[in-house]
Amino acid sequence: MSSICFQNFKFASPATMLKLRFCGSMMRCLSRCAQKKYEPISISKSLRENSPEAYAIMREAVIKLERQSARFTNVLLSPKEQAANEVIMREKNAEYNKGYLEPGNGNTDEPPYLVLNKIKETPLYSLLQKMPKGGLLHAHDTAICSSAYLVELTYRKHLWICTKNEGADAIAFRFSKEKPTMKATEECSWEPMEEFRERRGEANVIKYLLRRFSMYPVSSYATNNAAWQDFMSIFMLLDGLLLFAPVWRDYYYNALTELHADGVQYLELRSVMPNLYCINGEQLDIMDTMEIYKSETERFKANNPDFIDAKLIYAPLRIVEPKVCEDYIKNCIAFKKNYSTFLAGFDLVGQEELGRPLIDFVEQLLKLPEDINFYFHAGETNWYGTSIDENLVDAVLLGTKRIGHGYAIIKHPLVMNMLKQLDIAVEVCPVSNQVLQLGQDYHNHPAAMLIANGVPIVISSDDPSFWWASPLTHDFYYAFLGIAPFHADLRFLKQMAMNSIRYNAMAEEEKKKAFEKWQKQWDKWIDDVAK
Amino acid sequence: MQQRYNLIALLSLCLCLGLAESRTRPKALPITKYVYTTGSSSHVESLLGTSRPSPEAYKTVRNAFAHYEESRSLGYDLELDSREVQANETIMKAKINEYAEGEITPHLFNPSQHIFKVLDAINKTELFQLLRHMPKGAVLHAHDTALASTKVLIELTYKADLWICQQTGDLSAEAMRFAKEKPAALTDAGQNCDWSLLSDVRRERGAEAVDEYLAERLTLYPTTDFLDNNDAWTKFMKIFALLDGLLMYAPVWGEYYYKALEEFLADGVQYLEFRTLLPTLYDLEGTVYTPLDTVRIYVETLNDFMSKSENSAFIGSRMIYAPLRNTDTEGMLGYINTLKEIKEKYPDFLAGFDLVGQEELGKPLNVFIDQLLQVPDDIDFYFHAGETNWFGSTTDENLIDALLLGTKRIGHGFGLVKHPVVLDLVKKLNVAIEVSPVSNQVLQLVSDFRNHPCAQFFADGYPVVISSDDPSFWKATPLSHDFYIAFLGIASQHADLRLLKKLALNSIQYSSLSADAKYDALSKWQMKWDEFLDYVNNVSPNGATSYSSHGQSIIGT
Fold first, then answer.
1. Nearest to B404, CA basis, from A92, A89, A25, A373
2. CA dist., res. B142 & res. B275, Å (int)
3. Is B182 helix (H, G, I), strand (E, B) or coil?
4. Using CA atoms, how far apart are residues A27 and A19, in angstroms rounded to an integer?
5. Res B50: pLDDT
6. Count of C-beta atoms within a 10 Å radius of residue A102
7. Residue A50: inside a domain, yes or no?
8. Domain hosting residue B532, numbered range
9. Average pLDDT over residues B53-70
C-alpha cells in the first residue's frame, strides 16, 4: 500500500538533504495514510516535534518544489539579463503592490479600451512593448490591424457603402465602379463612400466607423453569446471592404508592419480563406488568396530582414454540415500541394458553442493526410460537461499540435496532464477571453494553473483589432502582471518568447534560424533595458 | 490490424495513467538555444501512432479516455441502489432543465449571476427544493455570529433593554447594546452617535420601517458590485461590529445559537462545526465573563437542544476556536493559553484551532510558526488558507504553511489550483477542502460560478466538503444554496446524485468526530437519507412546485 502511496511522489529525484528530510516525514505519514484510508492524516505531530528552524527548511523545500514545477523557473539568465530583470521587476512590483492594496483601481466599470490606454502609459508596458516577443501563434487574419488603418482604407477609390436607417447603420461595403447590385445581409441602400462622408460629415463618419469596427461598448453584452453576435457582425461588415483583392493584400502587409513594430517577428495566421473579388466583380479562386499571402510575406521579409516568417493555418467555419468538411479537407490538400511550407496546418473556427463539436467531424478529419497538422480551437467555454467542453478531449486525441484557448482546461485535469506529457502548447489569449465574456478577473484566468503545472503555453492576441489592443503587448502585460505568479520575472517573459518559436509550425532547420534572429533582437533589448 | 488498434488504445491509456511519464521529452532541460531548436518533434505520434486511426479505432480510444476521465471525478466510486437510481432521475431532470435553458440564455442562468439578484429565483426552482430536502450531512465551515437568518436577528432585537446608537436625525445604527440605563454616547473616530431605546425608536419610526432598516444593515445586500474584495470585507466587518452588542449579551448568545441549530436542522444539516472568536459576553448585572464562560454557554445550549425529542435527528456540534489573525506574538500566546484551557475543560466540544479575518490584510501564518508549533499535539488545526486569487502573494502561500502545520482541513483553498505540489499533498494526506461557493462570490473572488476553481476538485476527485461560511449575511439558507450552486454551477453537467451523496458523506467523514461517533452520525444521516429518497420518489412531476412555499416556511419554525 505505502509503495502505491509513494509512487507518484516527485520528491525522490532532487536528492538534496533538505528534501530527503522532508521525504522522511512524508513517508511516515503516508504509511499511516495506507493503514487508515479514510482517516484524515495530519502531519502535525511529526512536524510539531521539529524546531522552527527545521520547519523553515521544510517550508523552503516545498516552495522550491512548487516553483520548479512551473517550468519558467528553470530558465537561466545571463548577468546582463539579471540586470535587466531588476529593472523589469521594479516596475512590476510597483504595479502589483498598487493593485494588491487597492484591487479596485483599474478594475471598475470603465470600458476595457480606457484601461488598455491607461496601461499603455505605464513604464512596464513600454518595457514589454519593446521586448522581442517572438511569434504570434493565434490570430485571425481580418482582426489584426488597428481600427485607424481600417478607416484609412475607406478612403480608397470606388468604395461604396450600404446603409440603413438613413445612414445610421452601416451594413456592408463594396468596391465597384458602378453602383453594386449585390444584396447585403440586410435591406440597405448603396451610395459612394465619398457622398456618404460628405452627407454625414467626415468627423462623424470617422467616429462612427472607429466604433463600428470594434466591439465597443463591451459593457452592453449580457453574455458570451451576445458578445459573439456583435463579434461576427464586424467580420461581416469588414468582408466587402477587405475581400477586395488589392485591399486584402495591403491589409495583410500592414498587419505584418504593425506586428513587427510591436516586437513580433513571426506570425501564424488563421484564415477562413475567402474568395476575393476584383473591381469588375470577378471572383478569384481561393488559391489566389493563398498566393497573395505568400507573395506579400516574401515581400515583407525582403524589406525587413529581421522578420522571421509567416505561415498560415487554414481555418474554415465550424458551423457547417459534416460533409462540407470534406471540401475543407480537399482545399487543405490542394494548399499543401502548392504551398507545402507556407501552410502550417488545419483548424475550424467560429463560436464553439453554436458550431458543431469536433466529434461530429471525426470521420472527415481523420482523412486529412498525416503531413498536415491540426491546430484546433478547443474549450473556449466555461460550460462544464458540454460537448464544447469535451472538444478538448477530441483535439488532443486527434493529435492537435497546439490548443487554441483551452479555457476549460481546469475541468479536465487528465487532458492537462497529457498536454504536459505530449508537449502540446496552449495558445492563451487573455484579453480576448475577457472581452468575449468568459471571465472578468484576470486573477482567475485558468492559464495560471497551466503556468504553475509547467504546461507549455504561448501568449496570443486572437483579434486585437476588435478591442483596440496593441497587436500583442497588452496580452503580454496581462499574462505577466495578472495571471502569472508574483515571483514570475524575466525568466517567464523569456520563456514565453522562446515558446512561441519552439511550439510554432516550423521545421527544425527553420526553427534554428528563427531562434537566431530572435536572439539577436533579444540581446539588443536586454542591453537597452540593462542600461 | 485490430491488434494494432488495441495496442494504440493500451498505449494511450498507459500515458493517461502516467506510466509513460515524460517519455517524449527529458525533464528539466537546460536552456540552450539548441533545446529550443530541436526538442519538439513528436508530440502526438506517441499517442496515436504515426498514421491516423480509423474512425472506429478513434472512437474506442475516445470512449476509453472519456470513461477514464469520468472515473476520476468526485463521487464516481459510489454505487446507487435502485431507489437512489430512481431519485437520481428526478433530480437530474430538474438539473438538466435548468442547465439546458442556461445554455440557450446564459445571462439568465442562475449560477452565472450574482446571488443577490437570483436568490428568489433560485428558491423557486425545482432543483433547489429537492436539494433543500436532502440531508446534506454537516456544515464544517461557518462563523458563529453569521449563522441564523435575519428573521431571528430581528426577533432578538425585540428584547427589553436594548439600546441603539444613532446619528442624530436619521434612522441609522452604529451599534447596539443591552443596558438598564442609557450608555455614554460614542464619540470615537468614525463613530458619532447617541443612544436611544430601540423600543422607543420603533414607536417613533414605526416598527416596520425599523425592522426593514435593520434587516438591510445586517446583511451585505444590496451591493452586488463592490469596488473590490477589500471593499466587500469592510462592509462585512461592519456587520460584525453592529451585531456585537446584540449577540454578546449573555442571554442572547445562547438563544441565537439555539435558533441557528434549529434552522440548520430544518435545512437538512445534522452536524455543525463552527468557528468562533470566543468574545467576552456581558449582562445587565455586570457579571465578569471569560471566554470559557462563552464556551460553557455553548455547551449548555447544545445539551438543551440535543435533549429535545424533536431534535433527535441532530448529530451534534463542535467548535473551532478561531481568534483574529491580525495580532502579535503576545496575542498569539494568549490565544494558545485560552486554547489549552478549553481543551482541558471541554475536550469533547473543542474540535481545534484556526485564525480568522481577511487573509490579505491580516498576518500570514508564517509569522506565527514558532508559537503554532507549540500547540499541543492533541489539538488539531483547521486553517483558513488561500482565500485569494492573487497568485504568489503571502496570502496565497498560507496554503503551504497550513499544510505543513498539519491542518486537518483547509478553509476555502480558493488559490489551491495554482499550487500543484500542495494539491498533490492535499490529496495524498486526505486533507479536506472546505469550499464555500456563495461566500466566494459575495466577497468578490469569482463572479461567475462556472469559473469557480472547485470544478477542478470535482473533476479530479479531491476531498471536498461544501460549506456556507456566513449564510446570514447573504440571506442564504444554512447550506442548500451552496449545494445548489455547487451542483448546478460548478460541477459538470453530468454530475449526479453520486456527487451529492459523496458531498454529504464527506462532510461527516472529514468532521472532527471520532471514528465511533462518525459511525453513529452516519446512521442518523442514513435514516434521513432514506426519508429523502422516499420523498423524492413520491413526488409527482406536477406536484413539484406545490411545495415551493414550504421551503420558506421552514425558516423560523
1. A25
2. 6
3. coil
4. 12
5. 62
6. 14
7. yes
8. 103-149+263-551
9. 91
The pLDDT of residue A33 is: 42
Q: How many domains are there within chain B?
A: 2
Q: How many CA atoms lie within 13 A of A59 on its CB side?
A: 21
**In A70-111, which residue ranges form alpha helices assigned H by DSSP?**
79-101
C-alpha cell recorded at residue A522: 533579444
Residues B557, B265: Cα–Cα separation, whole Å: 11
Q: Which residues make Cβ contacts (< 8 Å) with residue A310, sequence separation at least 6?
A: A256, A266, A267, A268, A269, A293, A297, A300
Q: Which residues pair with B239 in a beta bridge?
A: none
pLDDT digits (tens, 9 = 90+) for B188-228: 756 678 899 999 999 999 999 999 999 888 888 877 666 67
C-alpha cell at B40: 519538439
What number of residues does chain B have? Answer: 557
* Same domain for A199 and A260: no
Same structural domain, B269 and B347? yes
End-to-end Cα separation, chain B, in angstroms: 69
C-alpha A12/C-alpha A22 separation (Å) is 10
Residue by residue, DSSP assigns A176-201 as -SS------SS--EEEEHHHHHHHH-
Residue A267 and residue A160 share a domain: no
* Separation of alpha carbons B453 and B446, rounded Å: 9
Structural domain boundaries, residue A33 = 2-69
Question: Quick check: B198 and B173 in contact, CB under 8 A?
Answer: no
Per residue in B19-43, pLDDT tens?
333 334 443 333 444 444 444 444 5
Tell me the nearest-neighbour CA distance from A52 into chain B, angstroms. Answer: 6
Taking the alpha carbons at both ends of chain A, their separation in whole angstroms is 58
Q: Residue A189 in contact with residue A182, Cβ under 8 Å?
A: no
Which of B40, B377, B417 is facing A410, going by the closest CB pair? B417
Mutation for testing the B interface, residue in A444, A491, A506, A512 having most B CBs under 10 Å: A444
The answer to whether B323 and B355 have CB atoms below 8 angstroms apart is yes
As a whole number of angstroms, the distance between CA B143 and CA B457 comes to 24
Task: Evaluate whether residue A449 is within a structural domain.
Answer: yes
Same domain assignment for residues B117 and B61: no
Contacting B residues, span 80-139, partner chain A, CB-CB under 8 Å: 103, 105-107
Question: Among the three residues A199, A228, A257, which one is the final residue of a domain in this structure?
Answer: A228
Residue with the bigger pLDDT between B236 and B299: it is: B299
Pick the catalytic residue: B412, B419, B452, B481?
B412
Bond preceding residue A103 cis, omega within 30 of 0: no
Antiparallel, parallel or unpaired: β A402-405 and A425-428? parallel
Chain B residues whose CB is inside 8 A of the A40 CB are 408-409, 429-432, 463, 510
Q: Which residues, numbered 136 to 155 in chain A, qualify as contacts with chain B under a Cβ-Cβ cut-off of 8 Å?
A: none
Cβ(B61)–Cβ(B12) under 8 Å?
yes
What's the number of CA atoms in the CB half-sphere (13 Å) around residue A153?
A: 31
Q: Any CB–CB contact under 8 A between B44 and chain A?
A: yes
**Domain total for chain A?**
3
Q: What is the pLDDT of residue A21?
A: 47
The β-bridge relationship of strands B175-178 and B162-166 is antiparallel
The position carrying cell 530572435 is A518
Same domain as A473, residue A339: yes
- B404 in Cβ contact with B423 (< 8 Å): no
- Same domain, residue pair A266 and A197: no
**Interface predicted TM-score (ipTM) of this complex, two decimals:** 0.86
Find the catalytic residue in B98, B387, B397, B434. Answer: B387
- Bond prior to A217 in cis (omega within 30° of 0): yes
Task: Quote the strand ranges of B342-418, DSSP E.
Answer: 350-353, 380-381, 384-385, 409-412
Sites in chain A below the pLDDT cut of 70: 1-47, 100-112, 217-223
Length of chain A: 531
Is B412 an annotated catalytic residue?
yes
CB B445 within 8 A of CB B387: yes
